[in-house]
Amino acid sequence: MNLPIWKPFANEWSTFFLFLITIFLLIIISESARSYLRWKPESSRKLVHVIVGILVSICPFIFQSKFPPITLAVIFIIINAIALKKKTFKGMHSTDRISYGTVYFPFAFLILAIFWWEKPITLVLSILIMTFSDTIAAIIGERTTHPRQFKLWVDIKSIEGCIGMFLSSFMIIYIGTDLFAWLFEAAFFIPLPILIGVSGFVAMLVTLSESNSSRGSDNFSVPIIAALSYDLYLINYTHGQLDSLLIWSVLSGIAFYLAFKYKSLSKNGVIAAYIMGIIIFGAGGLKWVTPIVTFFILSSIISKISKSDNQIHKGSKRDIIQVLANGGIATIISIINFYAPNENLYVIYLAVIAAATADTWASEIGSFSYTDPFHVVKFTRVPKGTSGAISFFGTFGSVLGATTIALVGLFWNVSLTLIYLIVITGSIGSLVDSFIGGSIQANFQCLKCNNITEKRTHCNASSLHKSGIYFIDNDMVNFLNTVSAIFILIILK
Length: 493
Description:
- The chain is mainly alpha-helical.
- It contains 18 helices and nine strands.
- Strands 6-5-9 form a three-stranded antiparallel β-sheet, with no helix packed on it.
- α1 runs antiparallel to α2, α14 packs antiparallel against α15 and α16 (392-408) packs across α17 (416-439).
């Protein structure tokens, strides 16, 4: 592709400083509009959002190298984080709700500039969706007289806003793909049905992502999901695998609806798992999606039949945070393999899911124990469900879970030696989870029912922090468990 199209200066860093000055002037204008013109904070924030979005979307047209845009993104991640903490730049940051969108947006642009710079069409369209579709959704939601509102996570959304998000995203992809393909002289032709399909596919996923966002996180999730879904659809199309992707999208939608119906997942957990499943399937097909589907289905069944009279209250249905904690690392590995295939990544992927499964099954099967478990740090008997506790049944469940996931690899010609390593890795990862949970995980006391819980809120009220590191909750421990599996496998190999 013949880039850039226009170079304001011979030296790209001169253009960089022009960008920097322009954005700072924009911040000053938004502050003035708020202070002197009595603009609402939400209006001045939208102004900054749209203009900055337009500016960064033209970066591939004027920068040959990705390093000036990357530097720009890093600068504003730092500046905006400080401004939020200091409560300055109110014209850009003040909203009627808690939002970290001004930090998420440059962070998303940073990721796009690093990994999608050589795919300018994908990068530009993703930024434009975040710039315009998100803004349109917000305006429609605010201007509708009697909006049909719903709440999936923290923020309140509206059906009308979601429709606006979908339609505007669809049009950006539909018009933008042909326009930029012509502009960049792309050597491909997309038939009309495929163009309509990719527009609808991307619009669906970004709308789901936006509706499931909280506190400005859509400023990160929407452009990243847009870029991933755009590539997944078109690459599956060029490889002759589009039919499988579309069939999976429908079937998994039905499956996750049933998961919600039978209370295995919360509403936001369903959407997160659905998007995650589409990404993993689109990136690797059945080979990659089978292990995580096995984990989810069997874990849900075991959870339903296990005893639930624990004194430590962890929460029942899996929500978005729990889905990301257990499957986030696995999803990232599948994405890496999609863009840079390597058979070793599949083994790591299995090990990560094996660790998540081992930990989950250890807790669920451990509840069948007739005696109280043994705490790995305190060396005392503790109530069932206590983080950091192990038992014979729990240990058996851990090994069984890791083995189940490892055996999935046999269907895809993973060697027996690696199968053994995966089992050992998953089992050790579960022990790491227990040590972290028993040593530094936060515990709270409900001020209403007086029960010890791992939740910061219980009985619809804030809980009292009793022990451990405040931000190291059960979800963080689960996440660290999956991360540890990577290092354990590397050491064992």
